[in-house]
Amino acid sequence: MTGKTLYDKIYDAHIVADRGGADALLYIDRQLVHEVTSPQAFEGLRLAGRRMRRTDATLAMLDHNVPTTPRTEPITDPMSKQQVEALMANAEEFGVQLYDMLDVRQGIVHVVGPEQGFTQPGLTMVCGDSHTSTHGAFGTLAFGIGTSEVEHVMATQTLVVKRARNMRVLVEGDLPPGITAKDMALAIIGRVGTAGGTGCVIEYAGEAVRSLSMEGRMTLCNMAIESGARAGLVAPDEKTFDYIKGRPFAPKGGQWDVAVDHWKTLYTDEDAEFDIDITMNAAEIEPQVTWGTSPEDVLPISAVVPDPASIEDKAKQAAAEKSLDYMGLRPGMKIADVSVDHVFIGSCTNARIEDLRAAAEVLRGRTIAPTIKLAMVVPGSGLVRDQAEAEGLDEIFINAGFEWREPGCSMCLGMNPDKVPAQGRCASTSNRNFVGRQGPGARTHLVSPAMAAAAAITGHFTDVRDLMAKEPA
Amino acid sequence: MEPFTILTAVATPFYRSNVDTDVIIPAEHLKTISRTGLGKYCFETVRYDENGNLRNSSPFDRPPYDKSKVLIAGPNFGCGSSREHAVWALMDLGYRCVIAPGFADIFFGNAIKNGLLLITLPESDIQELLKKATGRQFTVDLEAQTVVAPDGTVTDFEIDAYRKERLLGGLDEIALTLQDADAITAFEERDKMARPWLYA
Ligand code: SF4
């Protein structure tokens, strides 16, 4: 018998009942809840007279709609306000733990879960949000679900889940200096494509992945969904255990050792087989910038905007033409010549302390270009904000010309008032450059926090390594 | 979820290709907190003009179709986004059954979760049914797997056993899963011993 992959180990350990074919009823260890995809689920419970099976396995927070201006100000959009108030009332009625807008622990679900130690190796974890894949960084089987499924988990703590195929992305060697997890994530999507992981769970492995910090691994797994995969996974190791230790939901006392012993069994067996296996060389990864309206439209900073005429596949050619038209770019233009007027550092991809440190290091002693209309930093949680302030990062950002905001999803999807105007061009550390994602007509280029900082300083995309080689002027 | 057994109602003819989820429910109505009440926005651009007046070309609000529960639609119905609002809106407008030559995958999955019966029939059958959808009543019999037109002609349809059972019993997926409540509890009892730190 051949060995098992990490994915299969976690899946098998959670089967409650077989459902025929590739389907099984899986036990769901933990659920994160936010205000946008939960109201109808709570309403469904109410209408059916059902309770929540395990409030202790559920954690709710406000993130998508919340303004990033001072929390003492009211929410002006009545629909956003209604969604926020509905979650507060539902949490109260059903007895769910909620971090409200004034709670220091509040923030983006995918930043807060790990930060609180709610995310742990070997768990099955869900949230009504596609970027739930982030939690895979801990060796957690975590994936996004629809609203009926949210309700299903609330009522039964289980979900009917189809077994996914196994895919591995092996990144060998060491990442060169100045290259981050975000560049790795984008380079992988560029290679695999946005549908390359369809029907799969991707395990990221190899030296370059092992050497990433937990924050870096979260950035990587966050974007697994952008490769079309159900989830991303990194096998847990000492770094994972160190990160979790002492956090509020972490196992305590004697249970810690029992937990770690269990977590150490969570790896892919030597002789396990993957349905798809891809190998990349970390040394070849350069700073990445997207040029189109899909995360797979990505190139190194040294490249030029591609010419759709050179694409053979007719459908892809037409898509590229449409993208360039929307993005207002000409084929053959150097990526480094594309100027930006907005900079957004934030989102569940890149709003953790390490991300803010990386951006601040570039910005220290420098100021943003006068052509930048708005540059903002939105920490991923209240705790990230406090940590950054304790390290003086807020001052570096503010002195450079950035706005320092309160935590939330913010300009990642513009459900709150933070939007990029039509035809505005934004260097963004988020994960989706879809048409209209940051506001109607907005043009988004996905980059790492360091590359966003570099673009803010020069007013156009710039290889951050060149900037770092010089002293601030 | 209400059981689906025999449905007798007027059928609305609405034959168009690729009716997407934005047509079924425009995106601006998604910032809602409710699954109900979306019926008034269902097919909004088909039913109302820019000034909010009912369009003469729309079948939906005119008698006898205002009491309709069956929709006879075109190919690839429900394509577009994954949001469940499309199904909620149709059901809130009164529909319990949609008959079409084909449905988009995700819409298909969402419909069953909410008890909306989708029937796939060959194009030729659809054309026949459309001709007969002039305001008199159709009968959809799920047990017998038949659609009976007002003139008495019977059209058989296929449905897989698992979906049929769920619809007939009014078993939403939660109710079905709860039939395994003992297995869930047993899992938790075992798990509490193995991973006690996960239980408060
Ligand atoms: S930060 Fe963006 S991608 Fe992440 S959960 Fe919020 S809206 Fe979704």
TrEMBL record, chain A:
BP term (GO), one: L-leucine biosynthetic process
Catalyzed reaction equations: (2R,3S)-3-isopropylmalate = (2S)-2-isopropylmalate
Top-rank EC class of the record's enzyme: lyase
Cofactor binding annotation: Binds 1 [4Fe-4S] cluster per subunit.
Record keywords, A-Z: 4Fe-4S, Amino-acid biosynthesis, Branched-chain amino acid biosynthesis, Iron, Iron-sulfur, Leucine biosynthesis, Lyase, Metal-binding
Gene Ontology MF terms in the entry: 3-isopropylmalate dehydratase activity; 4 iron, 4 sulfur cluster binding; metal ion binding
EC number, as in UniProt: 4.2.1.33
UniProt superkingdom: Bacteria
Cofactors that this protein relies on: [4Fe-4S] cluster
DNA repair is among the record's keywords: no
Pathway entry: Amino-acid biosynthesis; L-leucine biosynthesis; L-leucine from 3-methyl-2-oxobutanoate: step 2/4
Assembly notes: Heterodimer of LeuC and LeuD.
PANTHER family on file: 3-ISOPROPYLMALATE DEHYDRATASE, HOMOACONITASE, MITOCHONDRIAL-RELATED
Family: Belongs to the aconitase/IPM isomerase family. LeuC type 1 subfamily.
HAMAP family: LeuC_type1
Name of this chain's protein: 3-isopropylmalate dehydratase large subunit
Organism: Aquisalinus flavus
Gene encoding the protein: leuC
TrEMBL record, chain B:
Sequence ranges assigned to domain Aconitase A/isopropylmalate dehydratase small subunit swivel in this UniProt record: 1-123
Catalytic activity: (2R,3S)-3-isopropylmalate = (2S)-2-isopropylmalate
Pathway noted in the entry: Amino-acid biosynthesis; L-leucine biosynthesis; L-leucine from 3-methyl-2-oxobutanoate: step 2/4
Keywords per UniProt: Amino-acid biosynthesis, Branched-chain amino acid biosynthesis, Leucine biosynthesis, Lyase
GO cellular component: 3-isopropylmalate dehydratase complex
Single GO MF descriptor: 3-isopropylmalate dehydratase activity
EC number in record: 4.2.1.33
Record CDD domains: IPMI_Swivel
Domain of life from the UniProt record: Bacteria
BP GO terms, sorted: L-leucine biosynthetic process
InterPro entries: 3-IsopropMal_deHydase_ssu (IPR004431), Aconitase/3IPM_dehydase_swvl (IPR015928), AconitaseA/IPMdHydase_ssu_swvl (IPR000573), IPMI_Swivel (IPR033940), LeuD (IPR050075)
Pfam family, one: Aconitase_C
Signal peptide positions (record): none
SUPFAM superfamilies: LeuD/IlvD-like
Alphabetical list of NCBIfam families matching this protein: leuD, PRK01641.1
Family in the record: Belongs to the LeuD family. LeuD type 1 subfamily.
Function: Catalyzes the isomerization between 2-isopropylmalate and 3-isopropylmalate, via the formation of 2-isopropylmaleate.
Quaternary structure note: Heterodimer of LeuC and LeuD.
Name the UniProt record assigns to this protein: 3-isopropylmalate dehydratase small subunit
Species: Aquisalinus flavus
Gene name of the record: leuD
